[in-house]
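Here is one such protein, fold included:

. . .
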Amino acid sequence: MENQINNICAVGKRKTSTAWASLEKGSGLLLVNNQSLDKYFSYISNDKNKIQSLFLLANLKDEYDITIQLKGGGLSSQFDAASLAVAKCICDAKPESREILKKNGLLRRDSRIKERRKYGLKKARKAPQYSKR
């Protein structure tokens, strides 16, 4: 049973990157910050087809248009945030695909973020050089 909602939105985060994904009925068009996926993530070689594989897992190929807005962070964390946002959109559009996506670990947010710097240290854990005398 699919939702009859025309526009489905979701947010995905990773490190300092935030992705807002919007899913609409369409022909399979994928835009990232008003550019194609391959053009925007041209420097990322690993898992470029991860977002398209989400639709293959949910049997939704070429049924929806996706628009993703990204902000903050680097390309790798933006890509992970975008794939999480799209996975959440797919779960809203087709709830029965949730189990498949969850089993493949595509609905889990990676909670690792940069550790804050502590006073008395040079970085988060790096201490100044110790001198005995």
Remarks:
- The chain has one domain: 7-103.
- The first strand starts at residue 7 and ends at 14.
